Amino acid sequence: MSGQESFSNADTGSKPADPYTAKNKDETPLSTKVDDLAKFIAGCKFGMMTTRIGPTGLMTSRCMALAAQEAGGIDLIFHTNTESGKTDSLATDPSINIAFLNGSGEWASVAGEATVTTDREMIRKYYSRALKAWIGDLGDGKHDGGPEDPRIGVIKVTAKQITYAIVNQNPVGRGIEFVKGVATGDAPNIQFLRDITEDELAEWRKTHE
User: Fold this and answer.
1) Smallest Cα–Cα separation from 127: which of 142, 149, 143?
2) How far is CA 148 from the centre of its chain?
3) Confidence category of residue 133, pLDDT binned at 50, 70, 90
């Protein structure tokens, strides 16, 4: 099988088959898209990291605490125990997705490629004492959960494609739009739905590496 398969179950003629997307799609300058994304991700603090399990090809997700953002907010840094299953998965397939969600229904999906590094300078740069609780101190003077513990690594996610949605008005306004949509069948305009393409990300990195 080659190429990208598509699925359609309807013919809506000249009308959009996905009115929500058509109504909320937002085109805005790249700087605004990245700035709003970076602020949203930083506010979430936790994301769901999805990788592929090598032997089976199945997808698995786990909650990860965001350690830092690079390249002006588009590339993501996470701590990891190098002896965990996710590092095995990434060694087989570096493709990765990080998803963020908050209580207002705002969300972001960051698709890209991951690298696992044990570079001590980078680990010291992003080290947090809270890691000791997750990594543990084995009491042997080496595996102590500190910045020199060889089990501590860093996963860097280099973004290749980003899609996100943030609210475009206050809760009252969103509620009115939703109720109107239920009554009329007209999709509510309640979010800025944005894409950041691979070409846009490459353009952004030229001045933010």
Assistant:
1) 149
2) 28
3) very high
**Bridge-partner residues for 166, per DSSP?**
192
Task: Provide the 8-state DSSP code for 186.
Answer: P
Taking the chain, what is the end-to-end CA distance rounded to the nearest angstrom?
A: 37
pLDDT score, position 1? 44
Q: Which two tokens stand for residue 54?
A: 């090598």
pTM: 0.85
Is residue 53 within 8 Å of 88, Cβ to Cβ?
Answer: no
The C-alpha R_g of the chain, in whole angstroms, comes to 20
b vs e for 105-144, b when ≥16 Cβ sit within 10 Å of the residue's Cβ? Answer: ebbbbbbbebebeeeeeebeebbeeebeeebeeeeeeebb
- Residue 86: both structure tokens together: 């996710």
Residues 6+ apart with CB under 8 A from 161: 111, 112, 195, 196, 197, 198, 201
Token pair for 82: 């190098």
Residue 128 has pLDDT above 50, yes or no: yes
H helices within 11-81, ranges in order?
19-24, 30-44
